[in-house]
Structure formats: structure tokens, C-alpha cells
Amino acid sequence: MEYFAGLDVAMKETAICVVDAEGKTVIEGKALSEPDAIADFLHPFRDKLRRVGHEAGALSPWLQRGLIERDLKVVCLETIHVRSVLKAQRNKTDKNDARGLAQMMRTGWFREVHVKSDESYRLRLLLTHRRNLKRKFLDLENAIRHSLKVFGIKLHLTGRAHFEDAVREQVAHDPLLAGLCDAMLRARAALWVEYLKLHKLLVQFASRDPVCLRFMGIPGVGPVTALAFKTAIDDPTRFKRARIVGAHFGLTPKRYQSGDSIDRPGAISKRGDKEVRSVLYEAAKSMLTRYKGWSSLKAWGMKIAQRSGHKKAVAAVARKLAVIMYAMWRDDTTYQFSTSAATA
Length: 344
Description:
Elements: E1 3-9, E2 13-20, E3 25-32, H1 35-42, E4 49-55, H2 60-69, E5 74-77, H3 79-86, H4 94-107, H5 118-147, H6 163-171, H7 175-208, H8 210-215, H9 223-233, H10 244-248, E6 253-258, E7 262-268, H11 274-289, H12 296-308, H13 310-331, H14 340-343
Parallel strand pairs: 1-4, 4-5
Antiparallel strand pairs: 1-2, 2-3, 6-7
Helix pairs in contact: 1-2, 5-7, 5-9, 6-7, 7-9, 9-11, 11-13, 12-13
């Protein structure tokens, strides 16, 4: 008799349910959200335990690696798919969620999530912290700009380099405003210094990585785009075809079809990694608008822009960039700028 287990993971405890091949519940309970505790709970079924499933979350990479090291066949499940399946239950509890996950493991109706390597997670943390510092810096700057409008002080034409001097000059006549803005400006300056440190570290990592260096040979692709794409893919062998990568990052159109009367395409799905999709979009936009050279990819994008508009062209080029970058990594090749079509 084969067994299947579902894990509903929380910070302190994990609800566990084990079912047999016929779907009958064998055991239910809770264990600490630690690899050792979960493995001990499942130990009586280890020899016949076919699959153990848990939903993707903050603790998923750590638990996945820990349970695999303890000889358990663990599968990390896609969150959106799990959520849709578990909606069929009347009551949402940890116990019921574990039951639902166990049944998904038994039926095989699930989508597996690739758990990235430790190195990829470390570099993605660098990207995340850099992005957060920049957002907080911009939040403070925009808060200063907006709050001073009440007093008729307009800073919309002031650039970042002269922003602090302009603010101090405008509020120098008012001691209260000067004190308030001084605190905000000092916090803004501290965030900018720390952001530059992380940005420098990111550029160093990208410049030392041979894959990222090849990516940066593409017009519009910088160190942020290269490192974000590499860490999101993690393993260049996990996709069967290069064109799947565009759909993986949500850059392919949605479609809604029902019966004979309804069949309408939509905008891009926007599924997958939002940050990678954003940097790919920025790289495509830079290629079409800022890059002064020429390539077959840019020629293709310009034709789409003339036919369907600029935004659709940028999204299409972003999708094509994802496919090209993946193929370059998989085949160990470099970006080819010109073809007969581009020259024409």
C-alpha cells in the first residue's frame, strides 16, 4: 500500500495528513515546522511514502532541502494552483488544508515549483534589499516634495543631485519646516549611501559571472537585468523549450474561451516573477528607444510598434529577450546583432 502526505506549513507548527492509495485518511496531526520533527512524524510510512507535498512559501526552500536530505520524496506546489483547489472546501482550517494537499498528492493533480539553489537565493536577496532601499529613498523624496506644496514650494523641476540644497534653501526662513525637512533629508541621504553600497556589490557579482557578462552583451540589458534573470532561472536545463520561458514570466497573452461563442484573447498574463518581468520590460524599452544601434531584434520590435503600438512592441521584445537569454545560457552562445533582415 502506497501513502501520500500533505503538509500545511506555518511558522510554529505544520499540520500533517497521510492518506492511502484509496484516499482514506491514515493519520493526522501536527509537528514543529522543523525538518527533523516532520521527518519523525512521517517515519512509520517512510518506506511506502510515495509523495509529500507542501505549498510554496517563505519556509519552503529550507524545508524542501531538509526533508530531501532525510530521504523523503518532497514536492513544492504552486501557490495559485493550490489555492484554487482548496477553495472547494467549505471550511478553511490547517487540518482541512493538509487533507486537501494529501489528496492532491494522491491524484497527481498539482503543479510543481522549482526550488532554487542557495546561491540563487542569496543573490536574489541582494536584489531585493537593493530594490527596497531605493523604494524607501524615493518614498522619502516624494513625501518631501508633496508636503511642501501646501506652502507653495514647488520642487517638480528639481533634479536629484540638487534636491537637498533646493529644499534647504526654500525652508530656511521657517525654523519648524527647516527642522522637519532636515530630519527627512538626513534619512534620505543615509538610505542613498547604503543603496549605493548594495548596487556596487550587485555590479561586482554580475561582472564576475560569465553568464551575466554574456547577457550584458545584449543592448539594453544591464547588471540588474542579467542577475535577476539568471537567479530566477537558476537551472538552464529545467525547461524543455526556450519559448516556455516567456510564459513562465507572464509575458504571453491570456485567452478566455468557452463554447462556440466566446473566444477572446487578453493582455499578458503577468504570472510568475514580477521583478524579472519588470526588468525585462525596461531592457526591451531601452533597446527600442535609447539604443542607437541596430539589430534584428530591434527591427522586429519596430515593425510591431508600427503595426500594434509601442507598449505591445515592448512586451513582445521583452518576451523575446527572455527566450534569447535562456537559449544563450543553455547553448553557451553570444548575442548576434545583425542579420540580413536587420540590415535591410
